[in-house]
Write a structure and sequence with these properties.
With about 375 residues, this protein is an alpha/beta fold. It is built from twelve helices and 13 strands. The strands form four sheets. The chain has a five-stranded mixed β-sheet with strand order 1-7-6-4-5, with helices on both faces. A four-stranded mixed β-sheet has the order 8-13-12-11, with helices on both faces.
């Protein structure tokens, strides 16, 4: 029998800096009333100068590990879903793996837009079911404020920064991730995209002047796609899991627009109260939105043991994904003792020291080999 992938730890991080609708009204022609009426957003978080997709992912990941009582060295894979990586390469997941000290883990980034976290859940659950991994860390992290055109009110009012993470662990006990549905329609790739920065349009004076490195979106088309795709993916994932929609305790959708969430609830014939929404406080954090909302729902007591929940999202690509999960982790979770917390801090310090040591060793090796090559050349 294949092992089941259970969620055993979770964490989130959002920057301290709050950007309210009132502040945005000083940057572009908008108002708090206009933004709330069309999106449901009241404020969003903005990363500080020293923060990035990697640093926020690390904060969320540490919480997930500590909650589960899993050592970084026990991780088999680190998956970071993001469209705003620290660099095109190496993968942000590699920076997370290094900072955690997950020395036995593979690591890679996943680009599926706002659906990225659900894609990560699906991949992680399948790695566990195949017996390839036992502990898989799935993170959604975004620094969208760095790719915003702050003069475009149609996009800059929507997005924010943050990170969320879950730890999947293999178990012989039935439950956990019951089913996952993933899909894409590449014909809609130009509806939500960042035109420049890749190999098609590398950075130049022209691409910078034309703001081609900023996010662009055709909002109406994306809205129509979303209100159709969320109910369809939800029905399909529940059918695969053999679950009746009436037995779902909570829906955790991608936090893009309040009207999209309400439309999906109406189409599914579900009370809006069963859809968790924190859009008002964070805006659209892309791949981070579902895990942040999931963790907040847990903290608020909206999810209990043995509940069935559905995470469903849509995003650039165009992509969509849904995951049905039977919650098996004990709730509430006891906080770490001071001693246990200290042990984890020491592990992270050790990981930093090990990383610095390896960099120093490479530098010394390069200097020594270069000098040796020079001597051989003179001889």
């Amino acid at each position: 029998m294949s092992p089941y992938a259970h969620v055993v730890g979770w964490g989130r991080y959002v920057p301290e800096r709050v950007l309210s609708n009132e502040e945005l009204a000083h940057l572009v022609d908008t108002s708090d009333e206009w933004i709330r009426a069309r999106t449901g957003i009241g404020e969003r978080r903005i990363a500080g100068e020293e923060e990035s997709t990697a640093t926020m992912a690390i904060r969320a990941a540490r919480q997930a590990l500590e909650m589960a009582g899993v050592r970084p060295a026990q991780l088999d894979m680190v998956i970071v879903a993001t469209i705003t990586p620290d660099y095109l390469f190496p993968a942000t997941a590699c920076a997370v793996q290094d900072a955690l000290g997950a020395r036995h883990a593979g690591a890679f980034d996943l680009s599926a837009g706002c659906s990225g976290f659900v894609y990560g859940l699906g991949i992680g659950a399948n790695l566990i079911a195949a017996g390839a991994c036992r502990n898989v860390l799935v993170i959604g992290s975004e620094t969208l404020s760095r790719v915003m055109d702050w003069s475009d009110r149609s996009t800059c009012v929507l997005f924010g920064d943050g990170a969320g993470a879950v730890l999947l662990q293999a178990s012989d006990v039935p439950g956990g991730v019951l089913s996952v549905v993933l899909g894409a329609d590449g014909s809609g790739g130009d509806l939500l995209w960042q035109p420049a920065g890749g190999s098609r349009h590398p950075a130049s004076h022209y691409t910078v002047a034309e703001r081609m490195h900023c996010l662009r979106m055709k909002g109406r088309e994306v809205y129509r796609f979303a209100v159709q795709q969320i109910p369809q993916a939800t029905r399909e994932v529940l059918e695969r899991a053999g679950i009746d929609i009436r037995d779902v305790a909570l829906f955790v959708p991608h936090q893009a627009n309040q009207r999209i969430i309400e439309a999906a609830a109406r189409t599914l014939g579900v009370s809006p109260d069963r859809f968790y929404c924190n859009l008002e406080r964070y805006g659209n954090t892309s791949a981070a939105s579902i895990p942040i909302a999931l963790v907040e729902a847990l903290e608020a007591g909206r999810i209990q043991r043995d509940d069935v929940i559905v995470c469903v999202g849509f995003g650039a690509g165009l992509t969509w994904g849904a995951a049905a999960i039977r919650w098996s982790a004990p709730l509430p979770v006891a906080p770490l003792s001071r001693w246990a917390s200290l042990v984890y801090r020491l592990r992270y310090w050790q990981a930093g020291a090990r990383s610095a040591g390896r960099r120093l060793s490479r530098w010394i090796g390069a200097r020594f080999n270069g000098r040796k090559s020079g001597e051989n050349g003179r001889n």
